Amino acid sequence: MMQHEKMYQVLTKEIADINERIKKLDYLYIKTEKMHRLLSQHHNSTQPHYPGNSARVSRYRDPSPGGTLRINNIYFLAFTVSLIFLVSGIAFILFASSLSREETGEYIQVATGQIKFALAEHINEEFGNLRAASIISHDRELLSPDGTFTRLTKRLVANNSYIQVGIADRNGYAMWMEKGGIRRGSLAGEPFIERALQGEQVVTGTRKNAVDGIDVNYYAVPIFDEASGRISGVLFAADPEEEFRNIINHSLYAGKGLAHIIDSQGNYIVKSMSPIVIGIGDNIFDIPYPLTETDKQKLLDNLAMGQAGYFERKIYEADRLVAYSPLGINGWHVFYAVPEYMVSAGLKNVTVGGIVVISAAVLAFIFFIMLIKRVNKKNRNALETMAFIDPLTGQRNYQKFLIDAAEILKNAQDMKYAICYCDIKAFKTINDLFGRETGDRLLRYYSDFLFELTQEGEVFGRITGDIFVSLRKYQSKQEIETRFESAAHRLMVFPETFSRGYRVELFGGVYFINRNDEKLPLNDMMDRAITAEKSAKTLKNGKHLCFYTDEMREQKLWEAEVESTMEAALENNEFQVYLQPKIDIQHGNRIMGAEALVRWISPEKGLIPPGRFIGLFEKNGFITKLDRYVFDTACRNYKETVLDRGQQKYILSVNVSRLGLLQPDFISTYVFMKEQYHIPDGCIELEFTESLAFENHTLFQSIVDECRRNGFLCSLDDFGAGYSSLNILKSIQVDVLKIDGLFFKYGDNSDRGRELVKNIISMAKSLHMKTVAEGIDEEYQVEQLREMGCDAIQGYIFAKPLPMEEFNRFVELWKTPMAETKLF
Ligand code: C2E
Ligand code: MG
Ligand code: MG
């Protein structure tokens, strides 16, 4: 009984473990969904760091999720703002500098005006001097050396810088003072004398003075006869050109400005002394960079019309700002050119400085954005490592696997992919036997091998514990099988376990993704691979790899449906008990017993055979409830017919599932029901499947013994169907051995088969066990079995399982001469 309970506890724990696993997977999936959503908002194309696996990362192609959009938008916005700031800053500076340039132009024109004003002032002063003297000099002895001339000229020479002062009479005959001496001569025809005689105040252009070669300008004013008001002569004086030059050279910009006085043709009246213009002609148009025809014509027109003007051009050695302004005398103009760099040097500095400052600010801004981005990236990497890396293997965890696999499948194009779900057999046992550290090393060893197997465009990850999942490319099913085999082999030869004689085994389930799966969520594909893997665990052909088929899916759907309706079905009496007679072939084919077999009569689906639901009920535990229901129903019928109505006796047998057998209240419940219907001992046989008997025959035997003590007969069902060995019969004592129908299937009449059955029967006999052959549907089999000494046959040859009423009728109709023979 102790062992019995222990086994029950082990099984319950196993079931709880499985449930826990399922829950974990669901939880992981939900977590993945959440994480994916979260990270896709912060994700960019960079990949997470795989600790201790830097070489592996290179094989890992991280698909770039669309989540980068938002973060890139922020950077795009930041860069746009910077650009706008930069462009508008520069535009503003350039605008300000152009304003300033305009101002400079105006300033130069004003400066030109000032030079002009100074010149005009000087000339007018000279005229004033001469005019004042001319009034004084008015007397008859105009040209007398002792008279007015001498006084006048002496005074003019003494008070001014003139180097010649003289008077000409109306005929142009002149007398003048130079270098302290008096000279005479005719100046008739000299333009400035002629013009002055016409009443003009004249100042000439620069000319060389004949006496000492000094450049001079002549001033001439008419002398009026006081009495007649007529012009009686001309007072003239030669002023050194230096006087003009002093004025025009007093230009701005550290002497870099050039100032000339020009006539209306552009000829120099007074030319700047700057070395730049020395020796390059007598006209402002004689310059190294001539003006265009249009500009030249415009300038000439302005000069001719006595208008001021301004332009910017390269005229001498550099770009210049040029202003000209009419002097108001002789059609002369002041022509003033300032090198542009002089004017704009400061401006340029400010402009360049401004641009540099703005650019630096923008760069600093960009730098901070990059810094934020880097910190962000670092944080994200850390987050991703935490969220996506399996710390044990350094490979993807389930979440990351789902994300990457989905990405790969999105871009899969024509490539064929399969999902492979693998699980190490009894990993818990490995941990228990070899220690957790070895278990961990085994997982890393396996993971490393999976990594080696991984090709470009494939991913794998560890889901949890010993479960790995991979997305693999394939051309043929064979390819996947080979890869699985090599992984399984690699596991098997894991040195730490292999050296101690333990063979690690691997189970695998594969789902081949097909083109129509586009809308199928990855999680569902995973489910299918898991389904296949679960099937692999039930394979009896020694293989450990299973490929998903639609039937599996249908089976799953079926199971889901069954599970949701089974309880109600039991309530609604949809489960019905059929009875199949067992015929005693050694005693005239009398009815020896009947096996209660359940049928599900569903109003929607019709009759459902037990093969379609018993296995599932064994998995989900419902079988215990159902078995008790069948037992109760069959007992009630037995009481009503055999005990109450006196129908012919038979041994009623019921199936007891392995789970039911392990229930702590199993015996007490069955005894209670048996007694409730007053069924005598020895009338009920309990059929146990052989699996538990062979797994733990001590426990099994203890249960069997207890059942027998309580008046039940016990049989070993399906003998020979599983892992039975004749040997086990030595240690198990049951009343009946039910030889599995497989021995008789397909008319297997081989000598070996027959020999085997014969031996089983004789061995059972020698161990005092009755034998019942199941699934017999041929007459010759009956004869053979009879000859072999088999006690009874349960088969279609005599009757199929029948509804209880039909069975009751069958019993009544089945008359044999030896009906009263003792059963056992
Ligand atoms: P089992 O206990 O070995 O039952 C014998 C099975 O062999 C029955 O199938 C029966 O209909 C079938 N059979 C008998 N004679 C022949 C024959 O000549 N030819 C063929 N082809 N089959 C024959 P059934 O009723 O479909 O039950 C299948 C299995 O389901 C049973 O095998 C038993 O393991 C399980 N089962 C049925 N009812 C119950 C139940 O109430 N409780 C439990 N725990 N298991 C049950
Ligand atoms: Mg049975
Ligand atoms: Mg059987």
List the helices and strands and how they pair.
Layout lengths: L1 H39 L13 H4 L10 H69 L11 H12 L4 E6 L3 E6 L2 E6 L4 H7 L4 E2 L3 E2 L6 E10 L6 E10 L1 H8 L8 E5 L5 E3 L22 H13 L3 E6 L4 E8 L6 E7 H49 L7 E2 H13 L6 E8 L2 H8 L1 H18 L5 E6 L2 E7 L3 H16 L2 H4 L7 E7 L9 H17 L6 E3 L2 H22 L3 E10 L5 E13 L3 E3 L5 H7 L1 H23 L6 E6 L1 H4 L4 H11 L7 E6 H6 L1 H13 L2 E8 L16 E4 L11 H16 L3 E5 L4 H10 L3 E3 L7 E2 H10 L11
Helix pairs in contact: 1-9, 3-6, 3-8, 10-11, 11-12, 17-19
Bound molecules: ligand C2E and magnesium ion (MG) (2 copies).
Keywords:
single chain; 824 residues; alpha+beta; 8-stranded mixed barrel; 7-stranded antiparallel sheet; 24 helices; 28 strands; rod-shaped; binds ligand C2E; binds magnesium ion
Describe this structure in words.
By secondary structure, the protein is α+β, with helices and mostly antiparallel strands. Strands 19-20-22-23-24-25-26-27 form an 8-stranded mixed β-barrel, surrounded by 5 helices. Strands 1, 2, 3, 4, 5, 6 and 7 form a 7-stranded antiparallel sheet that branches. The two termini are 28 Å apart. The structure holds ligand C2E and magnesium ion (2 copies). One magnesium ion binds at residues 595, 655, 687, 717.
